[in-house]
Automatic annotation (TrEMBL):
PANTHER family: RE12806P, SET AND MYND DOMAIN CONTAINING, ARTHROPOD-SPECIFIC, MEMBER 4, ISOFORM A. This is SET domain-containing protein. InterPro entries: SET_dom_sf, SET_SmydA-8.
Length: 500
């Protein structure tokens, strides 16, 4: 498979999984593939069924002239060029089933839950050979899904709808429709359009890779090229070693990751990170003890959300439920900050919440990491805190925020990951400005480094950032940033040469 870069093996615990077919170097391409189908995620609010941008789902919202389902104004004006909506448009037009207007265009729209399963079914009809070769062997956890509450909901909202009003009962059995739903629930990966709108896609080769909460495989999806996916190894992987992707967000704590995996993927992860109460020494879910003021409160069993949490120093105990309640309270407070206007008070509110919980959360706790991400995006961009206005102390604050996140990423997403590249880009600018600031003040060096050494360090950071982001679609924000990083690097190298 993948030109010998990986082999597919099988075992009772993992089912099918991939191993390196030869010694692989960080950045080596494993494979590329086209999605079997792409479409809206579950519970999406009204969106354009061609480009996935949000639309008004009310009476006056834009619609496809042929079938009456949501299309944005740009896409509805170019119906002869439709790619993703074309086939379901024929289904809806033929049966006369139109989209029913909704009152709230920000809430999940249950009518759209049928779209991506329908696209999987239509793709099966169009390419039966690929279905048999790549989709037929895929796991869809039929027995476990039948026991879940979602089965009956899907039976009503999707299976009955497609086979009844949409008149597809002769083409697709109820079992096959449920299988399409299960295939997506268990195997789909999130992608984004060129404009950054979220969707999901079925990528059979990537789905072969086993899950781990510390992946060694990264992937980039290219929306401008039919959502083509490229998978690479992020680190060196010796021949025969397992290849791991991740089905969750690496920067969430163990309780949340386990919950997502159990609910949607129907398994419990037993990776090294999940089995370690300290999450590989990062203390990503650890609380600080307010009884002895020096101890760390960690779970006694990471795989049991109800397990007792205990201070390693003074043996203070609390329940898993109490910990989750505290975490949820802080989460809700942070979620409210995301609604604030894009002005100085937004940044200051994040800083004050960060300080507020300093005595509660371990410095590297996932909530602190999330706040750092928000602050990194705000420092240098928000009015009153734009890059040219930042004093050295705030430039140093941004540098420390970036380095803190990189310390976490080095453990959870080691090697050449997109997340690392984005933080490296944020890091390079304050480093350059601090170097220039020291030079302007007549200081020959800063932290024992000359101006040239400091600028060279920033150049290495930009170079690494660009090397990772050049794998992205050039039409996406990350791909555009790759080009910006390349240009900035060329200018920086010119500046460094003048210092010789």
């Amino acid at each position: 498979m993948g030109d010998g870069t990986y082999n597919v093996l099988e075992c009772p615990e993992l089912g099918r999984y991939g191993v390196a077919g030869r010694d692989l170097k960080a950045g080596d391409r494993l494979f590329e593939e086209r999605p079997f189908a792409v479409g809206p995620k579950l519970d999406s609010p009204p969106l354009c069924l061609e480009c996935c941008c949000p639309v008004d789902g009310g009476d006056t919202g834009p619609r496809c002239a042929r079938c009456g389902w949501p299309l944005c104004e740009d896409c509805s004006g170019a119906t002869d060029q439709l790619v993703y909506h074309r086939d379901e448009c024929e289904v809806f037009s033929a049966c006369g089933v139109r989209f029913r207007p909704v009152d709230d265009s920000t809430a999940g729209c249950v009518q759209l839950d049928c779209i991506t399963p329908l696209r999987v079914l239509l793709a099966k009809e169009a390419d039966e050979a690929r279905w048999m070769r790549e989709i037929e062997p895929m796991e869809y956890h039929d027995a476990e899904r039948r026991e879940s509450a979602n089965w009956k909901v899907d039976e009503n909202n999707i299976v009955a709808f497609l086979r009844g009003p949409c008149k597809l009962g002769d083409r697709f059995t109820a079992e096959l429709v449920q299988r399409a739903i299960g295939l997506l629930d268990v195997n789909a990966f999130e992608g984004r359009t060129c404009n950054g709108y979220s969707l999901r896609g079925l990528y059979p080769q990537l789905a072969i890779m086993a899950h781990n909460c510390v992946p060694n495989v990264v992937h980039s999806i290219h929306p401008s090229d039919g959502f083509r996916l490229e998978a690479r190894v992020a680190v060196d992987v010796p021949e025969g070693e397992k290849l791991y992707t991740t089905y969750t967000y690496t920067l969430t704590g163990t309780v949340a990751r386990q919950s997502i995996l159990k609910m949607s993927k129907f398994f419990t992860c037993h990776c090294t990170r999940c089995l370690d109460p300290t999450e590989l020494g990062t203390h990503f879910s650890t609380l600080l003890c307010n009884k002895c003021h020096a101890g760390f409160i960690i779970t006694t069993d990471p795989l049991d959300e109800n397990a007792e949490w205990r201070c390693a120093q003074c043996n203070f105990k609390t329940s898993g439920a109490a910990v989750q309640k505290a975490v949820m309270t802080i989460h809700n407070e942070i979620d409210e900050l995301a609604c604030l206007e894009y002005e100085a008070s937004r940044l200051e509110s994040y800083e004050s919440v960060y300080k507020k919980y300093r005595s509660v959360l371990h410095p590297q706790h996932f909530i602190n990491t999330s706040i750092r991400h928000s602050l990194i995006e705000l420092y240098g961009r928000i009015p009153g805190y734009e890059m040219a206005e930042l004093p050295d102390i705030l430039l140093e604050r941004k540098v420390e925020l970036c380095r803190s996140i990189l310390r976490v990423l080095d453990v959870f997403e080691p090697g050449k990951s997109r997340a690392r590249a984005m933080i490296l880009y944020e890091l390079h600018a304050p480093l350059i400005m601090l170097a220039q600031s020291a030079f302007t003040r007549g200081e020959d060096n800063r932290d024992g480094k000359s101006l040239k050494q400091q600028l060279t360090e920033a150049a290495h950071i930009l170079e690494e950032c660009g090397e990772i982001l050049e794998w992205e679609d050039p039409m996406t924000p990350e791909g555009i940033l790759a080009n910006v990083a390349k240009q900035s690097l060329a200018q920086l190298r010119q500046s460094i040469e003048t210092l010789d």
